[in-house]
Amino acid sequence: MHPVLLVDDEDGLLDMLNIMLQKEGIKEIEFATTGKQALEKINSFRYSLIVLDIMLPDIDGFQICQEIRKISDVPILFISARTSDIDKLTGLNIGGDDYITKPFNPLEVVARIKIHLRRQSLQLHSQNNMLDQFDYGYLKLSKKTGELYIKGEKIICPAKEFELLSFFCANPNQIFSAEQLYEQIWKQPTGLNDRNTVMVHILRLRKKIEEDIKKPKIIVNIRSIGYKFIPPKMEDL
Question: How many angstroms separate the CA atoms of 176 and 185, rounded?
Answer without folding.
Answer: 12
